[in-house]
Structure prediction request, 347 residues.
Amino acid sequence: MDLKLYLNKIISTALLLLMVPCIIYAAEKKNVLILNSYHQGYKWTDDEVRGIVNGLFPEQDNIKTYIEYMGTKWNFSSDYLKELCILYKKKFNRVRFDVIISTDDDAFNFLQKYRDGVFGRVPVVFCGLNWITPGKLSGMKSVTGVNETTDISLNLYLMMKVHPQVKKIYAVIDSTTTGISVYNKLIEIMPQYEGKIDIIPLYDLEMKALMEQVSIMGNDSLVLLTVFSRDGTGQFFEYDEYSTMISKKSSVPVYGLWDFYLGHGILGGNLATGYSQGITAGNIALRVLKGENAESIPVVMDSPNTYMFDFLQMKRFGIGRDLIPAASIVINEPSSFYSVNKTVLIP
Prediction:
């Protein structure tokens, strides 16, 4: 064989061998879909996505992430969901997902009904799914995730402890998917409080009627703001809008169930956080991407919630730090004299 031809053949083979790892690497890149129930800019959803991305961070170079927003706070009719099926089937007809991470109930319910037909039987990791029961996951294979439990009972206990004079707690609730879950849970636990305190649901009211109601409450009352993104007329409100409106109008302290209300008028509560939900789901998704069967990974049932309060609202209603749980996070608290002047106090 001609020496020049022989050398060229060796060089070509060597170059091909150098390219093989790159080809294998590209083939092994995993596709992850984050399917959000709500819209971008909704703080809870943004926090969940941020948590998911951080949970996936250790393998970020080997993952291609797709993020979709269903926008069901605006529209969740059956016709709209069917149109989303058609859209996603066309949009991702050339993409094979290795795992789908769903945030909140509407996205999970959508996947439970349409996943196999739209995406195929892709493993699903959920977060933000409210009050999981075995029946909620029935009929769906290859699924796991993290439970979201906004502990209403714990918050009612907190409110009664901080305000021993309270006789009535008004629970503000809308008729969205999350709102219905909250309402059903509240109805379930109300008999436990008979003879102790009156729990009064303010369910699916018009915003004007709600504003009037909270403005005339007596000193023996409190407000528990659950979710009110859509009022009884169907008008949509962002979380910071309705939280601020209700809290400003309310003549009594307002407590909440989610951390996105903090800083927008609520006094505080034992609050669920979107970031904790998201990072937990991201960590679970990594295990699936590394080969674990989703069904073999137990659902995380203990929702990672935290006591959190707003110092400005504590001051407004005369609530001292001695009245709230010792491990609470308090925002808007002024720096103490010691922390500000410790360089002066300690030589």
